[in-house]
Amino acid sequence: MPLPIAITMGDAAGIGPEIIARAYLEQPQQMRGCFVAGDVGAMRRAAALFCGPDGPALPVARISAAAEVNQVPVRCLPVLQVGASQSLPQWGRLSRAAGECAGACVFWAADSALRGEVAAIVTAPLNKAALAGTGSAYADYAGHTEMLQARAAQFLGCSAAQLPVRMMLCNDELRTVLVSVHLSLRDAIAAVTMENVLQTVMLTHISLAKWLGRVPRIAVAGLNPHAGEGGRFGREEIEIISPALELARAQGCDVSGPWPPDTIFMRARQRPGVPAQFDAVVAMYHDQGLIPVKYLGLEHGVNVTLGLPLVRTSPDHGTAFDIAGTAVASASSLLKALQTARDLLIS
Amino acid sequence: MPLPIAITMGDAAGIGPEIIARAYLEQPQQMRGCFVAGDVGAMRRAAALFCGPDGPALPVARISAAAEVNQVPVRCLPVLQVGASQSLPQWGRLSRAAGECAGACVFWAADSALRGEVAAIVTAPLNKAALAGTGSAYADYAGHTEMLQARAAQFLGCSAAQLPVRMMLCNDELRTVLVSVHLSLRDAIAAVTMENVLQTVMLTHISLAKWLGRVPRIAVAGLNPHAGEGGRFGREEIEIISPALELARAQGCDVSGPWPPDTIFMRARQRPGVPAQFDAVVAMYHDQGLIPVKYLGLEHGVNVTLGLPLVRTSPDHGTAFDIAGTAVASASSLLKALQTARDLLIS
Question: Angle formed by the axes of helices A242-250 and A194-212, to 10°?
Fold first, then answer.
């Protein structure tokens, strides 16, 4: 029997609980072996959104340990209560308590994964403002990635800075890994250092080699238009990126570039009848990588954190406070995130 | 009888001549009213690429004035010889003479358009290195846009700096207009000024209002991830872009933003059954706008120069020296550029 997979509930005022409930209703077989780390009351409220007079019933079963998940029947939603039961926040309203609960669920799931009690974590969206407003320990973290990084570093006995992590975004067509994330474009240029580029390539190599079972073909985008055109507009390709790729090659990576950013993503696109030329593209900054991943639509995007000693994936969308509680949000990105976590575990 | 449209031949060592010949062979009706401003010998060589023992014949007719185009029968390629006949360059080899001839064709076509002898210019690709290597007057120009800008400014009696132009890239799904083009990313950030952003929005507004026959809906991308998230990472949105958009609104533009760059392009995408939310996106730098335009493939991309007192479009690809002379290059982007020029003229 494989280890269970924990799905963190996310912010109870957002769409996290309802997309989880929807996934259990629409794809009960795919959800086998999963449980929610969250609040039983919040999950019951979300399940009830789908249970009108003609709707299907989705019973919520409270479990007290991850291992109990296999005793819960299919078409039933197992929830492990993290902390005390919560009073329910209003849908779509910032709530300090909901932020605190969401943070506690992530810490709980990270610790369980690090101890080897769960196989992987899939995180439903939390709200950064709610997290920052709690006044609790979670206020120090910008989001999931930083929380998981800190928890893993503590477990390993190192500092967070000693545990470099990177964000990979993927959908059915494209995988892209980002050198930096939430920095101004000016600061993102400054973050294009040999160390950061090399780390990004190596983390991509290690993760995809495991995932694909072979040496992955990694393309690296340049920073400047036309990758600087031989230094005519920008020298980062010559002075920073190319030397970093040389070092990566010396360590066995199949890495090419720096390529002109405007055409490398289309070359890495996997389409029916048009095989991708690369397994992933390393992007030099947030929007360079996210514009192509998101261009075809958000529904199936998955976020994978590379560099952690645990498997963590998440849907590529936020709490969507504007539609929370209306049962219209799609579960497809969450289901895709779960499938990606399973793919990463099997490999 | 509408005025003729001039197609400049581009660099004779590249794919320009053969994609023009191919367009005449494959879509003779669409090419009616067009002629090539170029070299008769180079166009004959290109036409002969398609005329094997079993291939169709494509006669080249030499004309001496634009107005003669209507006397040339369909399925015949009219060429106006610009300057003296050229010795033919080797396919795919940099040639000073080919660069000079390509430059002369662009100047000739610009002057004809400015004098009102041709309705529009469609430019086949020239090679910037060949242009720079000529030692002639063309060596000062980075490419088509700068040549046309200089020629138009001279015609209008102003300096090139007084005639701001912008590049619009469009395909069947998306139109994007760039604040800057061939600058390093660092310099492109510096080019995000109130004046440049406002000019870009106004040129987009004027051109699309004419094209679409109504006030266009313009979306403006931010510079930083998440459009700076309220100043958390980057203040250009607050200090530069938003004030520029206020000024544009005061002049009657329907302009919104600055939007998060990673999701605004997908919202402006026109798909069957999913109407676009905007008619164009103003992008803050080269790759921000070109990554989404190119992501779906290059074949149908069209480049339109905004701000000139003439209509100019071009295919969104280069001379492709690696395949020149092999008759494999597609004419679809050239045909699309011609169609776009016609659309701009009708409106």
Answer: 40
With beta carbons under 8 A apart, name residues in chain A contacting B294.
262-263, 265-266
Asked if A185's CB is within 8 angstroms of B291's CB, the reply is no
CB contact under 8 A, B183 and A296: no
CB B204 within 8 A of CB B218: yes
- Are B258 and B241 within 8 A, CB to CB? yes
User: What would the two tokens of residue B254 be?
Assistant: 């329907």
Using CB atoms within 10 Å of the CB of residue B57, give its burial: 0 to 12 exposed, 13 to 18 middle, 19+ buried.
Answer: exposed
Q: Which of A232, A265, A287 sits opposite B262 (nearest CB)?
A: A287
- Please give the interface size between A and B, counted as residue pairs whose CB atoms are below 8 Å apart: 109
pLDDT in tens, A168-195: 999 989 999 999 998 999 999 999 999 9
DSSP string, B79-135: EEE-SSPPPPPPTTS--HHHHHHHHHHHHHHHHHHHTTSSSEEEE----HHHHHTT-
- Going by pLDDT thresholds of 50, 70 and 90, the confidence category of residue A253 is very high
Report the pLDDT value the prediction gives residue A21, as an integer from 0 to 100: 97
Query: pLDDT > 90: what percent of chain A?
Result: 83
pLDDT band at B347 (very low <50, low <70, confident <90, very high): low
* Separation between Cα atoms, residue A198 and residue A193, nearest integer Å: 8
**Could you give the 3-state DSSP secondary structure of residue A212?**
helix
Unique residue bearing structure tokens 């470099």: A164
Pairing relationship of beta strands B217-221 and B280-283 according to DSSP bridges: parallel
Helix (H, G, I), strand (E, B) or coil at B19: helix
* Chosen from B269, B281, B291 to mutate, greatest number of chain A CBs within 10 A: B291
Q: Which residues in B lie closer than 8 A to residue A179 (C-beta atoms)? A: none
Residues on chain A touching B265 (C-beta within 8 angstroms): 291, 294-295
A147: its two tokens: 């929380």
Cα–Cα distance measured from residue B53 to residue A318, given in angstroms and rounded to the nearest whole number: 62
Asked if the ipTM is above 0.90, the reply is no
Encoded amino acid at A145, one letter = T
More confident residue, B229 or B243: B243
CA pair distance B22, B47, nearest whole angstrom? 8
- Inspect the interface and report whether the beta carbons of A189 and B185 lie closer than 8 Å: yes
CA dist B231 → A133, B225, B287 (Å): 18, 11, 23
Query: What would the two tokens of residue A45 be?
Result: 């409220």
Q: In what order do the strands lie in the sheet with A120-123?
A: A60-63, A77-81, A34-38, A5-8, A120-123, A311-315, A302-306, A166-170, A175-178, A280-283, A217-221, A254-259
Place of tokens 């002369």: B104
- Report the 10 Å Cβ neighbour count for B140: 11
> Cα B282 vs. chain centroid, distance in angstroms?
16
- Count the alpha carbons within 13 Å of A187 in the hemisphere toward its beta carbon: 14
Is B121 within 8 Å of B312 (Cβ atoms)?
yes
CB–CB contact B266 A182 (8 Å): no
List the single residue in B with minimal CA-CA distance to A183. Answer: B233
**Cβ atoms A77, A25 nearer than 8 A:** no
Contact B183 A233 (CB under 8 A): yes
Nearest C-alpha in B relative to A174: B295
From the list B228, B265, B287, the residue facing A261 with the nearest CB is: B287
Taking CB atoms and an 8 Å limit, are A189 and B187 in contact across chains? Answer: no
Name which of A187, A295, A298 to mutate to probe chain B: the one with the most chain B Cβ atoms within 10 A of its Cβ.
A295
Give the C-alpha separation, A95 to A88, whole Å. Answer: 10
pLDDT at site A194: 98
